[in-house]
Design goal:
Number of strands of chain B: 9
Radius of gyration of chain B: 31 Å
Strand order of the largest sheet of chain B: 2-3-8-5-6
Number of strands of chain A: 0
Radius of gyration of chain A: 27 Å
Helix content of chain A: over 70%
Distance between the termini of chain A: 23 Å
Oligomer: heterodimer
Order of helices and strands of chain B: HHHHHEEEEEEEHHEEHHHHHHHHHHH
Number of helices of chain B: 18
Chain lengths: 380, 447
């Protein structure tokens, strides 16, 4: 799930000529920023519109929903004892009216092409609207509330596991790159193919070992049932439930992650200027900090930023396997219930976060890497 | 050619690559074996088959090799039939119309627990007069227990534990316990030894005949065990191999090749083509990959081949295209391309015979390394309940096991068997991919 791009940013082409006019630099930046914003906006719009089309099956979900409304309304009207005494024609009319009002409530009375544009406008303005079938645990149909309710659980799982994973792998990789060829280094390389399996797969083994055989940790869920009253016990209970899914996520990619970072650092530490620094007799710490970490900072930041966005999406399958009530499982349920607003809602937020981060990264590069200038020549 | 030979020689230097290759070859062998012995339609029929196909197997039976690891030996299931000669049948005619059919089957019972159930399936031929059968059970200590006397119809089934008459005559609700121990003893324990089932049938017509099948449901079955629907798990384990390999390899190959071709076309033509490809890549980055697969699985079809197509389509325009593009931009300027242009080579000739072949060393490791993720993707979809409904796959077994709470109930074999196969497949390709990466990527060679 983590998109790791361990190649240095393409735009890091050295700028030969120093611009002396602050004015032209400023103008170039404005032009570049505007262009970037426009392309981002178009990208996000197309992406979200495609998602809307798929989530509605190009309008076919409408047909399903119409049939469902017709069925449910007719059933409930016929089952209602108050309606027994009514005349057939009157009852029929009543049912039709009820169906029409239901369809109007969901906006089904307008053609799909128009509604898809409405959807698009609403979602782009983050007006997520109301869910069709799903409700939050509090009983609300607001998509915003449904998603917000699940956000803490997802962020707890993704945040704890991904952050540990990221920092552990960067620091272990850095120390491994210092003494490459050691048995620890070889062990990491030997273990890196284990990352071929996704987190849920390790989850199964962890459940088997720690929940089924040794019975020390729970099979799944967020807290014990019934949940403890006092907040310390509650926290401990959540922590106990968090251990297995979080370690599944960490174990499933730690070795590959360490391997990638280690290779990346090694490539950078074989640069001439590093050799030069070593030859000058600088202490290893300084070489590491000023000559290896500094030029690799853009890549580290990119990876970290992309990781922070993926936290939002949750791990659909891991959450399903561990019955973790997060966003991933909500999205999965929403799809099963044809609940387009929820699907689109979670997509749009992801799209915005992604676009925003990518946009921001350009400027961050310029801050941390003096070789990069915003909008300098080559496009990314 | 020489380069290829050299890289093969390099490959042998990496033990992990050799191990990976061995694993892949074994898997290929299993896949071919599965496809040859079980045709596609037959596999689907068996996998979709219900009680009528799988009635011989017990439910939730662990594989037979469980006994190797456990001190308590559990009974192994079997089924014998007079029709194929695995159960002995002798016919003696007493008069023109009446004849006696003796069916005897003896077997050794050296297990520590009682079996689940024993069932007799009769298959008789007659026109008017029903044949008659009496069933006797002979224990190792020589006791003869009368099980039942009955007239048998064309197709009739006799289940030992569910016969109220037998329960009454044995004075026990638990028929299996009564049959496999001496209830009259003070502390009834299981008696090991040779048991015998004897059926004496009498037919009252000339062309009348009795055939019987004796189905013994122990706690263990076959090499792989069975699931909730009595299906032999060996079938999906065997047949899942070609499916997993086909899905993984096709998706990896399709994605890698198409990505490369599109990147090459984009860089070669430049201008709006390149721009368009770049924009599509960015849009694709925004699209939620797994969510779209789930939507397609839920809304349209769960066919594995459709999923494969969508997977390839969504994976083509990935970040990889940018990496390839950067390299193509360099090689586009090389002198041999200029030479090709000078002699008037067509665009497609330059793309397909000069640009792309140069990239194959980069392509191969990436391709092999991406196979496991696609193999696991198929399993992931199955775990979400979106596996192909018709095909027996590894992911489907895990999904079935999970929905049935196999881990809670201690049916570990059900989850472990497909999981271990998935793991081995993933490891095989990943190990080979890693070694290939180091061979073809000289920058990594020393580190």
């Amino acid at each position: 799930m983590t998109t790791e791009t361990l190649t240095p940013p393409v735009s890091s082409s050295p700028v030969i000529r120093k611009t002396t006019f602050a004015n032209s630099t400023f103008m170039r930046m404005v032009r570049y920023t505007a262009l970037r914003l426009v392309t981002m906006a178009i990208t996000v719009t197309i992406g979200v519109y495609l998602t809307i089309m798929i989530a509605n099956m190009g309008g076919y979900v409408d047909t399903i929903m119409r049939a469902e409304i017709r069925d449910n309304t007719t059933q409930s009207m016929l089952a209602n004892p108050n309606n027994r005494s009514l005349d057939r024609a009157v009852l029929q009319k009543l049912i039709q009216d009820r169906i029409a009002s239901q369809e109007e409530r969901l906006g089904l009375n307008k053609p799909f092409a128009i509604r898809s544009i409405n959807y698009l406008r609403n979602s782009l303005t983050l007006n997520l609207g109301r869910a069709l079938n799903m409700t939050s645990d509090n009983g609300s149909k607001e998509v915003r509330l449904i998603l917000l309710e699940r956000l803490p659980a997802t962020l707890l799982l993704t945040g704890s596991s991904e952050l540990i994973l990221f920092f552990a792998s960067v620091f272990i990789a850095l120390s491994l790159s210092r003494k490459y060829g050691s048995w620890l280094d070889k062990l990491t390389i030997a273990f890196s193919p284990t990352s071929a399996a996704p987190p849920w797969f390790y989850g199964i083994f962890f459940i088997l070992i720690f929940a089924a055989i040794f019975k020390v940790l729970p099979f799944g869920g967020l807290v014990d049932s019934p949940p403890p009253d006092n907040s310390i016990d509650y926290g401990l209970s959540v922590f106990k439930h968090l251990i297995l899914p979080a370690s599944a996520v960490i174990v499933s990619s730690i070795f590959l992650s360490i391997y990638n970072w280690r290779t990346f650092f090694l490539i950078y530490s074989s640069e001439d200027y590093v050799e030069m620094a070593k030859a000058k007799g600088l202490p290893a710490r300084d070489v590491e900090r000023r000559y290896i970490l500094r030029p690799t900072l853009p890549t580290i930041i990119t990876n970290f930023a992309l990781l922070v966005i993926t936290l939002w999406t949750g791990f659909t399958i891991t959450e399903t396997v561990f019955l973790w009530p997060g966003l991933g499982i909500t999205l999965f349920r929403a799809i099963g219930l044809y609940d387009t607003p929820v699907i689109v809602g979670s997509t749009i937020i992801y799209a915005y976060l992604l676009a925003f981060t990518v946009f921001l990264l350009d400027f961050v590069y310029a801050l941390v890497d003096p070789r990069v200038k915003v909008g300098s020549g080559s496009s990314q | 050619m020489i380069a290829l030979k050299n890289s093969l020689r390099d490959l042998v230097r990496y033990p992990s690559a050799v191990l990976g290759l061995v694993i892949i070859f074994i898997l290929m062998g299993i896949a071919v074996y599965a496809l040859v012995t079980i045709p596609y339609s037959e596999a689907v029929r068996l996998w979709r088959g219900g009680e009528d196909v799988w009635y011989q197997n017990p439910k939730y039976a662990a594989p037979t090799w469980y006994n190797f690891f456990s001190s308590k030996k559990e009974p192994v299931s079997f089924a014998v039939n007079t029709a194929d000669g695995s159960m002995k049948k002798t016919v003696t005619s007493n008069s023109p119309d009446i004849s006696t059919v003796d069916i005897i089957y003896s077997f050794d019972y050296n297990y520590d627990t009682y079996p689940q159930e024993m069932t007799l399936y009769f298959n008789t031929t007659f026109t008017d007069k029903l044949p008659f059968a009496s069933i006797v059970w002979i224990t190792p200590d020589g006791r003869k227990i009368k099980i039942a006397n009955m007239a048998v119809d064309h197709k009739s089934t006799y289940r030992f534990s569910q016969d109220p008459k037998l329960q009454k005559s044995l004075k026990s609700e638990n028929v299996m316990q009564a049959l496999f121990s001496d209830l009259k003893a003070e502390d009834p324990t299981l008696i090991k030894g040779q048991y015998q089932l004897a059926i004496t049938g009498t037919t009252f017509e000339k062309a009348s005949d009795i055939n019987a099948q004796f189905v013994f449901h122990g706690d263990l079955f076959g090499l792989a065990g069975t699931d909730k629907y009595r299906r032999d798990l060996l079938l999906p384990l065997l047949y899942g191999t070609p499916i997993a390999l086909a899905f993984g390899l096709l998706a990896a190959l399709g994605t890698a090749l198409l990505t490369m071709i599109i990147a090459a076309i984009g860089t070669w033509y430049g201008g709006w083509v390149d721009e368009l490809i770049q924009r599509i890549t960015e849009v694709n980055l925004v699209l939620p990959f797994l969510a779209i697969l789930i939507m397609i699985g839920t809304f349209y079809s769960r066919s594995i081949w459709l999923m494969l197509g969508v997977t390839i389509l969504l994976s083509i325009f990935s970040g990889q295209i940018k990496t390839y593009r950067a390299i193509f931009l360099q090689s586009k300027e090389s002198s041999y391309i200029e030479a090709a242009r000078a002699y008037g080579a067509s665009n497609s000739r330059i793309i397909f015979t000069y640009l792309i072949p140069r990239m194959i060393p980069l392509l191969i490791p990436a391709l092999v390394s991406s196979v496991p993720s696609f193999v696991f993707l198929e399993a992931s979809l199955a775990v979400l309940g979106l596996g192909d409904p018709v095909l027996p796959t590894w992911g489907k077994i895990i999904d079935d096991a999970f929905t049935d709470g196999a881990l809670y109930r201690g049916l570990y074999y059900w989850v472990l068997e497909p999981a271990v196969l998935l793991m081995i497949t993933g490891l095989g390709f990943a190990m080979l991919g890693f070694a290939l990466d180091r061979i073809f990527n000289p920058r990594l060679r020393d580190i």
